[in-house]
Give the backbone structure.
Amino acid sequence: MAILNRRTPLHAYEARRIALIKPSALGDIVHSLPVLTALRHRYPGAHLAWVVNKIYAPLLEGHPDLNEVIAYDRSANRRSWMAGLRAHLDLWTTLRRAQFDLVIDLQGLFRSGVMCLATERGARWG
């Protein structure tokens, strides 16, 4: 996978499948909504997906600039280590199969970095 050069402007990069990774914290998600709108403006025909903790998924579902909400069960670890492992593997598989062209990590934490890594199958990271 090639990593998008941070100096490459978005107007010069064509993406058809884009993932936003901002999985948790209600206020952070709300503050990130303008990024979604800007991406929709820049890429009007692209498929835009948002990776989010399942408890916040209802806030994003139905948003006019969003095509898909990829919800994951962050609390699965609390039920059992097997449930946690299954939830992480399911998310990893979903992200690998989605074949995103551009992935934007708005969280900037280890967990969201691992989510970016899961999209590696042809995505460019931003």
Remarks:
- The first strand starts at residue 17 and ends at 21.
- Strands lie at 17-21, 47-53, 68-72, 102-105, 124-125.
- Residues 122-126 have pLDDT under 50 and may be disordered.
- The chain has five helices and five strands.
